[in-house]
Structures are given as structure tokens and as C-alpha cells.
Amino acid sequence: MSWHQGPLVGFDLETTGTDVETDRIVTAALVRLEPDGTVTEQRTWLLDPGVAIPEQASAIHGIGTDHARKHGARAASAVEEIAHAVAGVLRSGVPLVVMNARYDLSLLDRECGRYGLDSVDERIGGVPSPVIDPLVIDKHVDKYRKGKRALQALCEHYGVTLSDAHDATADAVAAVRVVRQMGERHRPVSTLPPAELHALQVRAAAEQSASLQAYLRRTANPAAVVEQAWPVIPRSG
After folding, report:
1. Residue among 148, 144, 151, 143 at smallest CA distance from 181
2. Which of 34, 48, 102, 201 has the fewest CB atoms within 10 Å, i.e. is most exposed?
3. Rounded to whole angstroms, how far apart are CA atoms 157 and 180?
4. The whole model's pTM is what?
């Protein structure tokens, strides 16, 4: 049975911004979908990130500073729960589906470091795997397609309904449904065992970053650097 025909777990974060080194988790969701599409397990978190949530971020995911402070869990304890849950999925061997994994998993790694917690890597004894990233796979199988590659755009392209974009649970579910459709359409990807698919994405993500970096250096910034590591950016120092 191909990976896309088995259970998959979607993971998503909504955050204070887009910088993995400085921004914080606001909400998180971990959702297991069975082959028939039913949700059988679901965990969600709302955090008080300990900093003000910028208005620009609040406008995207709908969580403001006051609401997070009043209703959110203490960040350190919630990050511990999230990392423990993600590590549990990876230890089980069920593929973890993460849209733009390089961002979400790297930010979770930095949050663990911020609070002196074991990272997911440390909990499982290696780099998180198997991870399935709709963004990396879509760029690999359909390299020259014009248009955006954000989750909403991928949902439209693959015929998946996303009614509540930037809600962590809705995004996690949608990401799983998108990769299932990718598996149906692109057999060279769907026939790979999860470990081989993960390795393919490591190579593909590096190639995609190198291509973007070369483009930026030609057209906009001769000193542009685009991160190539996937699914987790190594900590500096």
C-alpha cells in the first residue's frame, strides 16, 4: 500500500511572524487522518507566546495579544507538549505532513531551545523523518507551473476545500488532503516508500533553494542566500 493510501498526520503552526530565529508559536495543531479521510485523533494548542503578537500576524490567524494572554497556555509547557506529541508521531512511523516544513519544524526547534527543552531531533535520536511537505513535492513534480504555491493555491490546484485558512487545524487537514491528491496524480512520488520520499525531498528542497538563490543573485541581490537544509534548519553556533 502506498503512503498516500495509509494514515497520515498533519501538523501546522500559526505564529507571531516569519523568522524562525525570533518568532513564537501562537497556535498549533496535530491531526491524524485515516485512509477514508476521517479524523481520528486531534490535538490543538493556544499559547501565550510571551511577547506581543504583531497586528499583521493577528490579521492573518485571528489571534490577538490580549486573547492569547487571557486564554493561552504558558509557552514553555505547551512547547513541551507539542514537541513530545510530534516526536511520538515520528517514532510511530506514520508520515508527518507539514506544509513548508522548513519553517514550522525549525521554529518548533528554536522554541525548544528557548525554553531549555529537548528538541524533536533529540527526542527521536535524529532528524525528523518521515516528513512529507506539499510545498517541496509540488515544486518537484510540477517545476514550471506558474502561480503561487501557498497552501490555499495548492488546495485550489488539487481540488481540496480549505474553508478556514490560517486556522492551524484546518491547514493541517488540508495539507494532508493535498498530499493525498498529489499521490494520486504523481505515481513516481506515490510509489516511493516514506523513507525514500523523505530523502527525495531533502535533495529537492536543496535544489529548489539553490535555484532561487541563483535567480535572486542574477536579478535582485548579488549576495542573496537561501537556506537549503530541510526539514529543519540547523541552529547557528
Report:
1. 151
2. 34
3. 13
4. 0.96
